[in-house]
Amino acid sequence: MKVDPFTLEIMLNKFFSITDEMGITLIRTSYSPNIKERADASCALFDAKGRMISQAEHIPGHLGALPVFMKLLLEKYPPESFEDGDVLITNDPYLGGSHLPDITIVTPVFYKGNLVAFCVNKGHHADVGGAAPSSMAGDTTEIYQEGIRIPLEFLYKRGELNKALLNMILSNVRTPEERLGDLRAQIAANNVGKRRFIEMIEKYGLENVQLYAEEIMNYTERRMRAAISKIPSGTYEEEDTIDEGVRLKVKITIKDDEIFVDFSGSSPQMRGCRNSPLAVTMASVYFVIKCLTDPEVPPNDGTFRPIHVYAPEGSILNPKPPAAVAGGNVEIAQPLCDVLFGALAKAAPDRVYAYCQGTMNNVSIGGIDPRIKKAYTYYETLAGGMGGRPNKDGIDAIHTNRTNTKNTPIEAFEIAYPLLVLRYEIVPDTGGAGKYRGGCGLIREIQVMDHVATVSILSNRRETNPKGLFGGKPGAKGVNKIIRTDGSVEILPCRGRWTLNPGDIISVQTPGGGGYGPPNERDINLIQKDIIEGKVTLESAIRDYNYKPSQKILNILKMQKKYGVIGGD
After folding, report:
1. Which residues contact 485 (CB under 8 A, 6 or more apart)?
2. Are the C-beta atoms of 405 and 59 separated by less than 8 Å?
3. Dist CA 422 CA 444 (whole Å)
4. DSSP secondary structure letter of residue 372
5. Measured distance CA(516)–CA(434) in Å, rounded
6. Res 404 pLDDT > 90
7. What is the C-alpha to C-alpha distance for residues 55 and 193, in angstroms, rounded to an integer?
8. Following CA atoms 171, 172, 173, 176 in sequence, which dihedral angle do they give, to the nearest 10 degrees?
9. I need a surface site. Which of 145, 316, 333, 466 has the fewest CB within 10 A?
10. Residue 262: CA count within 13 A, CB half-sphere
11. Beta-sheet strand order (sheet of 41-47)
């Protein structure tokens, strides 16, 4: 059969529409604010061979790990193992997963008795048991402490629910009603994808659908190889030491139309929880290379074919079980993206940005909600500064690199939890100075109301700064602290677990991004705009940019101070 380019475009968008609708279904029917409000979930469609056909525009950290997972799934369960009505479940980080709260649901798709596809999604559950509420404790040392580890098993077989497995899962979590609701949303999302894929087959024919799925993957591979071949061949290296002395080192070799990534020399796996499973590491690589080469290329199996990754077993980027891994997905894989971009900056300086905040700033709070006398678990990642770019500033207060979640609106937050948000704002002077300034971080302060709670933090860049590029200055470090009711302040390390008493406040200030280019090349109009908008103080502008304030700027600042406002002209 001949491939028609117009039909190819139609098929491509049809595949995307399937995964997009899966995502909409999952997010709108979920129970937890973490998925419902923050969209901490991802959906993809795979063919019967376990190759990704399409994915929704969700979280690169989830989606880049799924191809590794599907390969391992088919090694354990060959195609003949599946029947119509089956649903599989797992959260095992050592089986192509990320960390235990990320639960993967797989639904095989059958047409006229033949396996034709897999609908797959991953959702971050706000609690899966373990030592601390939200299952993201910063002080774990082995995976057994982090929550229930669900092996790759059938949750449904021929449409029949495995009640024993479901009961075992729900008996090991703090919020079973919410977990059940999110699991049902995941299953519903896959069912929608299954229906739409079968409708697509009935409309275009199975042979046509398979032909165009194959061609779309091959088309993507051709585009990726063409984009890679435009980068100068050679070997490019970068390394960085982040908090707790963790060393991330990469050597990237570009040879014709292929890329080889070697992480030899990175730190060995640690006793703490900041180990990054191999699938998580590979997701960071896939994200960075796609951004650098051809961001518009359709994401599918063809994207990954020219990319080869080596991470030594037993290293922090490919740990051996039973290493704890809760923080690897969020606090090692994030700065790893910066290191990868830093290496490739030597090959393509006009396509990269400076180091971003290098963390997801995980905050988990849990206890007994005094309003309903039941357990609650709050989990969120907090945005920070993006690195300055070759032609514009970094974005302020945004999730960067391999994450793509939203924030929890304060209104939804305070309805769902017995907590009060006292402060939520951008912090001035946190973005690194440069020709193009790094994005600013934010601060969020949360007060515990009428109960004792446990707070866990997993963060990075509390000891080290995000680097600038090409003369840009580093972004500011983050700060974690507890403000007690007696006014005392405890400065906290990058990770750990603490008790909050009624009235105590947890305060998290996130890092800024590094600057791009020398500060003395910054446009004076941009400096003045930053001062007026409150992103850079006058003192910092004078110090970092040698700025000499005009009388107009001084008058504006005087009026802002008088009326307690930011902005104006």
Report:
1. 501, 502, 503, 504
2. yes
3. 8
4. T
5. 5
6. no
7. 11
8. -10
9. 145
10. 10
11. 52-55, 41-47, 114-124, 102-111, 87-90, 153-157, 160-161
The dihedral through the CA atoms of 48, 52, 58, 59 has a sign that is: positive
Q: What is the DSSP string of 14-83?
A: HHHHHHHHHHHHHHHH--SHHHHTT--EEEEEEETTS-EEEE-SS-HHHHTTHHHHHHHHHHHS-GGG--
pLDDT attached to residue 1: 67
How many helices (H) and strands (E) in the chain? 14, 20
* Pair of tokens at residue 356: 């971003």
DSSP letters spanning 109-135: EEETTEEEEEEEEEEE-S---SSSGGG
Residue 24: which residues within 8 A CB-CB, separation 6 or more?
A: none
**Among residues of the chain, what percentage have pLDDT more than 70?**
99
Torsion of CA 426, 427, 433, 439, to 10 degrees: -30
Per-residue pLDDT tens over the stretch 146-198: 999 999 999 999 999 999 999 999 999 999 999 999 999 999 999 999 999 99
**Which of 423, 392, 424 is CA-nearest to residue 530?**
392
Q: Is the dihedral of CA 555, 559, 564, 568 positive or negative?
A: negative
Token representation of residue 489? 């302040």
First and final CA of the chain: distance in angstroms?
A: 64
Helix (H, G, I), strand (E, B) or coil at 426: strand
Structure confidence by residue, pLDDT tens digits, 233-292? 999 999 999 999 999 999 999 999 999 999 999 999 999 999 999 999 999 999 999 999
Report the alpha-carbon distance of residue 314 to residue 17 in Å, rounded. 40
Residue type, 214: E
268: CB partners within 8 A, 6+ apart: 314, 315, 316
Q: What share of the chain is helix, strand, coil (3-state, %, to 5)?
A: 35, 25, 40
pLDDT tens digits, 292-351:
999 999 999 999 999 999 999 999 999 999 999 999 999 999 999 999 999 999 999 999
Provide the pLDDT for residue 568: 59
Taking residues 31-50, report their average pLDDT.
97
Q: In 112-246, at which residue ranges do the beta strands (DSSP E only) sit?
A: 114-124, 153-157, 160-161, 234-241
C-beta separation of 103 from 186 below 8 A: yes
Residue 369 has pLDDT above 70, yes or no: yes
Q: Which residues pair with 369 in a beta bridge?
A: 374
Using one digit for the tens of pLDDT, what is the confidence trace for 16-40? 999 999 999 999 999 999 999 999 9
- Provide the token pair at 506: 């947890």
Secondary structure (3-state) at 557 = helix
For residues 263 and 311, the answer to whether their CB atoms sit within 8 Å is yes
